[in-house]
Write a structure and sequence with these properties.
With about 475 residues, the protein is of the alpha+beta class. It has 19 helices and eight strands. It has a four-stranded antiparallel β-sheet. Strands 5-6 form a two-stranded antiparallel sheet. A two-stranded antiparallel sheet has the order 7-8. The protein starts with a helix and ends in a 20-residue tail after the last helix.
Length: about 475
């Protein structure tokens, strides 16, 4: 059912304290992220009841409303339009105080700010990565089947063009995020992929187009932003429009050619080598650790640090071998939720939440199940991690055998990842290994939660009344709430 984004935005605004209480608005793939001057003014229970809202998360001053992919983009746009309406003087004053408070809180967490800024550079690229990745997969299937050979060159051009110029888009977003002129950041980052760099030699080594990849583009745009800001404060205003862009492109461009591309190229190569070595030599153990720890990383926001690594691997090898392993965390979460559904058959509230959130979980959107089911119950969150660890170990084991599974884009997970799968032995085997990992994650997540999830039905409690076990934890029918 399609959600009416304008109605959803209008319903959310008063429940978070009104326009005067909103100091900032942003969104990621699934969540509307709000900075609130006074989070206590938000009505969390009422928000959860709004049609289209899948959950609510409060994280270090950021108030996050889970809406799901696609929906969040439309709701955010309507929400911002509502905020843009004329405000009274009191409302403006309150919003100004909220902005100052949000800035104060942000300064206290520099690591999270750095990760959010990295995400702001790479997350806007995900829709193009997904679209081009799916087309590349379709083109590969057509080539393997020998169908429509005349269409293959056109599909190759459409699917590959974005990746050929991804450095430019990284440069644009980097400069925009760090306070520079986007087109100057893009211009300097474009040097990384320009064919002419093959004629440049320094330190006895000739550069190659694309050397350094997205990391080189990120570094180049950061350097351009620093140079531009330095020039803005020193160049006379009458000459600013002429000298500042020229000096920015010249200084940052030479720095990119004679320094950053070499350094970023070494780092990019090391990332690719490390990822291949990790899965080829310690695949099962690495998958166990990565799959088991990914849910906690998502909760802490630390998974954003992996976005440049995924993008580097895709740019370098054509796919990232890490994402299929990490996606197993979602499989463990689904298995745990199914066990809760079966175990707590008399808890209508939690069963209703699971029924509504499970389709999204199967497609890789795990927040509704995490924050609505497993995390509030406590132990099922840990058993979900166990399921993710088992699925990750399954995929990692096949990597040790030489069957690497990767994805040509980032963003989707769960079943939605199948069209993006690739591997060194063809998409068919990659899909089979990935499906086996999902089934393993479902099964172990279910079994671990059913047996060790600390769940008690009313019948269990009555049977064990007066015993130590019967006095254990009992889950009552109640609306799930985020911790």
């Amino acid at each position: 059912m399609r959600i009416d984004s304008s109605s959803t935005a209008a319903a959310i605004l008063p429940l978070v304290g009104g326009p005067a209480n909103v100091s900032s608005v942003a969104h990621c793939m699934t969540r509307l992220r709000l900075g609130l001057a006074d989070p206590s003014r938000a009505d969390e229970e009422a928000l959860r009841a709004v049609p289209g809202v899948l959950g609510v998360v409060v994280d270090d001053g950021s108030y996050q409303v889970v809406l799901g992919p696609g929906v969040v983009t439309r709701v955010t746009a309507d929400f911002e339009r509502l905020l843009a309406r004329p405000s009274t003087a009191d409302e403006l004053g309150a919003r100004g105080a909220g902005l100052r408070e949000a800035r104060r809180r942000g300064n206290a967490t520099p690591v999270k700010i750095a990760l959010r800024r990295l995400a702001a550079v790479f997350v806007p690229l995900i829709p193009a990565l997904i679209g081009c990745g799916v087309l590349a997969g379709v083109n590969g299937l057509l080539l393997n089947a020998g169908w429509l050979p005349g269409l293959s060159p056109a599909l190759t051009a459409v699917a590959s063009a974005f990746m050929a110029l991804i450095a430019v888009f990284v440069g644009l977003n980097t400069a925009k995020e760090f306070g520079g002129t986007p087109v100057l950041g893009g211009a300097v980052a474009a040097i990384v992929v320009h064919p002419g760099v093959a004629k440049v030699t320094a330190f006895g080594v000739t550069l190659a187009p694309g050397q350094g990849g997205v990391l080189g583009a990120l570094a180049a745009a950061l350097l351009a932003t620093r140079v531009e800001k330095w020039c803005r404060g020193r160049v006379p205003e009458a000459l600013d429009v002429l000298l500042t862009p020229t000096l920015t492109v010249l200084v940052a461009g030479l720095g990119t050619l004679y320094g950053l591309m070499y350094a970023a190229g070494a780092v990019s190569s090391a990332i690719g080598t490390a990822a291949d070595w990790l899965l080829a030599t310690t695949g099962a153990f690495a998958g166990l650790v990565l799959g088991g720890l990914f849910l906690p990383l998502v909760m802490l926001g630390l998974h954003q640090a992996l976005i440049p690594i995924h993008t580097t691997l895709i740019d370098q090898q054509g796919y990232t071998v890490l994402l299929p392993v990490l996606a197993m965390a979602g499989a463990g979460q689904v298995g745990a939720a199914l066990a809760v559904y079966v175990r707590l058959r008399h808890d209508t509230s939690i069963r209703t939440t699971i029924r509504s959130a499970l389709p999204a979980g199967l497609l890789g959107v795990g927040e509704p199940l995490i924050y609505g089911v497993s995390l509030p119950l406590g132990r099922p969150f840990l058993t979900a991690c166990a399921g993710g660890a088992a699925g990750g170990a399954f995929v990692g084991f096949f990597a040790m055998l030489g069957d690497r599974v990767g994805t040509t884009a980032i963003g989707p997970s769960g079943w939605a990842l199948f069209p993006l799968l690739a591997g060194n032995r063809g998409p068919g085997l990659a899909a089979a290994v990935y499906a086996g990992g999902l089934l393993t994650g479902y099964a172990v997540g279910f079994a671990a939660t059913y047996a060790f999830g600390g769940l008690r039905t009313p019948r269990d409690t009555a049977a064990g009344a007066g015993t130590a076990e019967g006095r254990g934890r009992r889950v009552e029918a109640r609306p799930p709430s985020a911790p």
